[in-house]
Design brief:
39% of the residues are buried. A five-stranded mixed β-sheet has the order 3-4-7-5-6, sandwiched between helices. It has a two-stranded antiparallel sheet with strand order 1-2. It has two domains: 65-199, no CATH class; 227-327, Homeodomain-like (Arc Repressor Mutant, subunit A, Orthogonal Bundle), CATH 1.10.10. The mean pLDDT is 89. It is globular. The protein contains 17 helices and seven strands. It has 332 residues and is of the alpha+beta class. This is AraC-like DNA-binding protein. One of its GO terms (cellular component) is cytosol. Residues 229-327 form the HTH araC/xylS-type domain. Keywords: DNA-binding, Transcription, Transcription regulation.
Amino acid sequence: MAVQVRAAALTNFAEVAASLGLDAALALRRVGLQPRVLRQPDQRIPTSAVVQLLEQAAAATGCDNFGLRMARSRQLSDLGVVSLLLTHQPTLRAVLATLIAYLHLVNESLAMQTEDAGRLVIVREEIVSSLPARQSVELAIGVLYRMCAALFAERWRPVSVHFAHGAPADAGLHRQLFRCRLVFDSGFNGFACAAADLDVPNPAADPGLARYAQGLVEAQSPGRDSAQQQVRRAIYLMLPTGRATCEAVAQGLGTSLRTLQRQLDAEGATFAALLHEVRRDLARQYLANARYGVGQVAAMLGYSTHSAFTRWFVAQFGCAPEAWRRQGKPLV
């Protein structure tokens, strides 16, 4: 089953496209979407089509911050009924935990996790895609930033915002929107925040309304994602940190190793096969960024040596990673 996202992900696509001289309806049809989806925010559409649409729109308009332009006018309400539940969480830490729990209602391809790092908390946010997804990543990070700002106003003060891709020709819009240190060519996509800021009370939180919203969200929930989807997202987040083992993923998902293996078996999947798929996806993305050395890419994909990575890469793609970079060969 194709990974899907609510059509609300394309809120204001037409407006941004028009401001840059792009025919939105034609752009949508080129990726197999009908223009009417822009009027149906709760309709589910393929994530791959959204990723392609934004990348093609950026290329056609010469605007390398197309996704961020969409993010800057997004509202918390664009998340649908989940937004009411988020509004009444007691702290930002609880907001992020709740959003992670209900990501399957917002965007099945979005992977998120929070990671304590001393006085900082790292908020990782990745798009699970085999296609280049720079615009979708910037849209997702921009939406998350604006959501936190809408809920916590001046109490939302991230230390830095991180992008795994390179800097744009002009980072003016990034500086205007994020108002904190920008780190491009980073090891992850997301934010670094002061741990204390995540535990500041939310004065707008109402426990009664939170319980009411919880009921609404649960009523419309189609159920949890499949084990495969959950594991794939976890591997995306954990592989670059060297922690993408079956045991660690099971722990991160709050289950036992045996239970996770049983769930994957029931779906006809294995952890090894999912790890392999994610490695192929990330190889495409990391090697497309010339600032990542091949040795660095090898480490980010979980290989302890350059030679082991090269052997795997040749077996998968028919050439060495250095040759692919010289030739500009597509990875399929």
